[in-house]
Amino acid sequence: MSGITIGLAGFGFMLVLMALRIHIGIAMFTAGSAIYLVMNQGNLNAWLFTLNDLAYARLSNYNLSVIPLCMLMGQFATHGGLSRSLFRAAGSLIGHWRGGLAMSSSLACIGFGAISGSSLATAATMGQVALPELLQKGYSGRLATATLAASGTLGILVPPSVPLVVYAVLTQESIGKLFAAAVIPGIIALCGYLLVIRIIVSRDPDAGPASAKASWRERIEAQFRVLPVVGLFLVIVVGIYGGWASPTEATSIGAAGTGLIALVTGGLRLPQLLTSIYRTAIATAMIFLVLLGADLLNSGLALSQLPVELADWVKHSGLPPLLVLACILGIYILLGCVMDSLAMLFLTVPIFYPVIMGLDFYGMSATDKSVWFGILVLMVVEIGLVHPPVGMNLYIINKLAKGVPMRETALGVMPFLASDFARIVLLVLFPAIPLFLVRLPHA
User: Localized where (predicted)?
Assistant: First the structure.
């Protein structure tokens, strides 16, 4: 039996395990072990040695500490009431516009995402804060839930972003460069969502009625309350981009600062502190388990030569590189209908990354191509979070919006998905957009 056949059989075995609802980390670990043992003719000592080496090499990686720090920062931000402050600040400025409160929730989501790094956390937290007020002010259930479900994805489009850290670890790419590359696409995503809301309320004014205009005193007070968030964002993004701090150092300062804010505001006491640490530990352990399983699967696939042969076949197939890229992005979108975003990254990046790196796109260097592909992957992973039927953000928001049918939420996100697709096309055709900050001398 050839190595390619063994690799394909092992990959199929993993998909079967996942279909049986086995945890993806366990499924990858089992399939990777099976491929490795078959390729080494059942040599158990070689497998144990590889497992020991992979576990130490992966879990001792200093860069991985960014993941628990981002998650702890998000937990502290939730308890500190920063999400409510962000929503109030944005609402005081534009809440009197038609659809202004919906736009405010999008602005608050991108602000909260800058200190949480998680789409699910952003959607859940902002949903609890903004959804009741949107419905109380007369916003349609479709617009209110769809806006929050779509805007929740902004949590991973702006740095720090957990999926970008995972991509960096899997591809050995610079976390700082990926964070810098995500800034402009994140701003474009926000502008796209604001435009969608504006178009919706222009066609149906009753979907997003205007609210009372805040006084200048209320506006100034609201802006002062979000100054700590602005400070944290500057520390993380400007610190990393300016080279003053590594991603780990910046996120550790951000986590400490967010915890201090939560402590001062009274939202962080001993029970909340213990809960934050407990939830961070659980999420981190899950991600690390999947990372270890992905490493073992990649090791088995490397022995089978499957990724190398696939990349070589695509390279010599004569297919246009943009067509190959379109097919890969299409696969991500389809997988997003049935699979979690991190699971997609762990499963597909080791296979698709060599394919992309073996093709020529606009004469880009290997580093630019790697960063560009990482941002594109982040975009399509984000679509999976709101794409029916299994978009996680849809279920999170719809669960909070009792009385709003899931069908209304799913239909409501369609204009936002159109904005997402347009943004992906823009970034595919003009890679200089995400690479602009990366290519600056000080990036």
Answer: Cell inner membrane
